[in-house]
Amino acid sequence: IVDAIINGEVDMLINTTTMGSQMVKDSFSIRREALMNRKPLYTNISAAEAAVQAIRAIKTTELTVAPLQEYFPDLESVAAE
Prior knowledge:
Elements: H1 2-6, E1 13-14, H2 21-36, E2 41-42, H3 45-60, H4 68-71, H5 74-80
């Protein structure tokens, strides 16, 4: 896996740890190489699922730009108090 990361064959990694000294050592190498090669790295299933949902949303939804006040209109009244 480390060689695939170095060779640019990997775009994103999901690497959860399992107990065992060799697995922990391998996991460290994979994570280090992912960071050194600026690859997104998710270390738990919840984060990986959130990333997949975000990728799907980007591919299927047109992105728009709006001020934060449109997303959180109630915050303006709280800030004024």
